[in-house]
Design a protein that fits this description.
The chain is 40% helix and 19% strand. It is an alpha+beta fold and 545 residues long.
């Protein structure tokens, strides 16, 4: 070919080639895509189809299992705030929490100065049987040093917990003994208790603190009520503050102990769930006891069922602040790989017909959980009148009292969050956790002497004589916090009471802590005043109409 002609036609040839390539490319794409008469087969739904296509045809190697694990939570975010996916790796912890036990060595520990220090030993547990003592330092676990390596609580739990029957070796440093003491411990079932404490506040008033509603909670609760009844309790204060909820049947069985047979406790209903009603089924063990229920902004779900049932049946008083507002019922659906879907299937309603669930926008979980902060900023924790409900949210109890739905249980008697004793000095002490650290150090240094004290009252009197607040101020100064006399005048009582309560807890547990800390607990003090009132419960309820 003539070179000159070739040069002339070359741009034309290139252009034609590009056009042909574009046409061929489009043709190939069309060949691979389905026509309007020939769609790809849809396996179960579009999502499963996409997953299978990625698995079969994606350009690179991809773990579709990992892809699905990451996608499921994102999918569920578009539903209500309580529908959740639980990966298989987290299911053991969930089961342990709700079943009420786990495999472990049976110690409560705290990390001080980068050292794991035993605070308490579970009576009858594996460590107790081998002679491990409160105050011991755990330095090694299976020949690995865990002291001085910036270990955290999760790391410690991971090495100490394990299946029942498995063994773990711990090296313990004990005061007065130069060498480490090695213990080979066979892990056992360690109980997780739902009842923090039950004790008599006065001759006729018992107190029960419930921290969750799990499988064994009802049994523990009955045991606590019987213990108090045998001690002479005619009135019971049930503390549900900070209790996030748990099993529906646990709370139903507990309320059952206070209501006459046939009384409505709660009912549930959902789009695909017909109404299901739960009534008291037997004569409860506490029908002759007056009851006061304590709640706050962190009391949720089953706690609200308990408070709502007592309130709507005019059975007792509810004292504190408006509860969280979770009125949704979840059903846990297991998968073969050990994971589970916790799916919201219904709403629950109190006996008066109230749905306690607070409003939410589907897919906006951040705003939902920000509600507590909004309440604080709105002044709700300080002033009861800051809460206004529409008339459409009014309901009546069996006795004709007005109660409200639409976002938590409103107490019969409001108690503001106590900030009157707070000061900048107290805030600095709290930020540095000085009370907690001092209490542990004092307990550890004086353990032999303190072990002779058996009751909260004995601790209170002993620590008064020891001028414990003055000793704390010396300690705080050494830790770099100069005494602020003005702040101390405002916050001294709360600081001193907390010190006493934590020292008592370190030695005799919750039976030491709660009877002391009650002196600065405004909500509990209000409940005690009501329980000691000369008015009968029926008269107090009438006041709230």
């Amino acid at each position: 070919m003539n070179i000159k002609k070739t040069n002339i036609y070359m741009p034309v040839l290139i252009a034609v080639s590009v056009i042909i390539g574009i046409v061929l490319g489009n043709s190939l794409t069309k060949i691979q895509a389905p026509s309007s008469q020939n769609f790809l087969p849809q396996r179960a739904n579009k999502l499963s189809t996409i997953v299978e296509l990625i698995n079969e045809a994606y350009v690179d190697s991809v773990s579709t299992n990992e892809l699905v694990e990451k996608t499921i939570p994102e999918l569920l975010k578009n539903l209500d705030p309580h529908t959740a996916y639980i990966p298989a790796k987290d299911m053991q912890e969930v089961h342990e929490e709700m079943q009420g036990n786990f495999g472990g060595i049976g110690v409560q520990f705290s990390i001080h100065n980068d050292t794991v220090q035993v605070v308490d030993v579970v009576s009858g547990g594996p460590s107790y049987q081998l002679g491990i003592l409160a105050g011991d330092r755990i330095v090694t676990v299976n020949d690995s040093v865990i002291a001085g390596v910036n270990i955290n609580n999760t790391d410690v739990l991971n090495v100490l917990r394990g299946e029942k029957g498995t063994k773990v070796t711990v090296g313990v440093k004990r005061r007065g003994i130069p060498d480490l003491i090695d213990f080979e411990i066979t892990r056992g079932d360690i109980p997780i208790y739902s009842i923090d404490v039950s004790y008599m506040i006065d001759d006729v008033t018992g107190f029960v603190k419930v921290n969750r509603f799990a499988e064994k909670t009802h049994d523990e609760f009955v045991e606590a009520i019987e213990k108090l009844a045998n001690a002479g309790a005619q009135k019971i204060i049930v503390d549900l503050r900070g209790n996030p909820g748990g099993y529906l049947m646990a709370v139903v069985n507990m309320v059952n102990e206070f209501l006459d047979k046939g009384k409505l406790i709660v009912y549930t209903e959902g789009n695909s769930q017909p109404r299901k009603t739960y009534n008291a089924t037997k004569s409860g063990i506490a029908l002759d006891k007056e009851i006061i229920v304590l709640i706050d902004e962190y009391s949720a779900s089953a706690s609200e069922i308990f408070a709502g049932a007592i309130q709507d049946n005019d059975r007792g008083l509810v004292v504190g602040r408006r509860s969280f507002g979770k009125g949704l019922v979840q059903e846990q659906i297991p998968f073969r790989d050990g994971s589970a879907l916790r799916l919201t299937v219904a709403r629950y309603y109190t006996p008066s017909g109230r749905c306690i669930q607070k409003p939410y926008v589907e897919g906006d979980q951040l705003d939902y959980y920000h509600d507590i902060i909004d309440r604080a900023e709105h002044g709700e924790f300080q002033v009861a009148d800051s809460i206004q409900f529409a008339d459409s949210l009014k309901y009546e109890t069996t006795g004709g009292r007005t109660v409200y739905g639409g976002g938590g249980v409103m107490p019969d008697y409001f108690v503001a969050a106590d900030t009157s004793s707070y000061s900048d000095y107290y805030s600095k002490i709290t930020q540095k956790a000085l009370v907690y650290h001092f209490a542990y150090q004092y307990s550890d240094n004086n353990r032999e002497l303190l072990n002779e004290l058996k009751t909260a009252k004995e601790f209170d009197n002993y620590l008064d004589d020891a001028k414990i607040l003055d000793q704390f101020l010396v300690y705080a100064n050494k830790e770099g916090l100069e005494t602020d006399r003005k702040g101390l005048a405002k916050s001294g009582e709360i600081i001193e009471t907390q010190i006493k309560a934590y020292i008592a807890r370190n030695i005799i547990g919750e039976e030491g802590f709660f009877p002391i800390i009650k002196d600065i607990d405004e909500t509990l003090q209000r409940a005690i005043q009501l329980s000691q009132s000369k008015k009968q419960l029926s008269q107090l309820l009438a006041v709230t109409k």
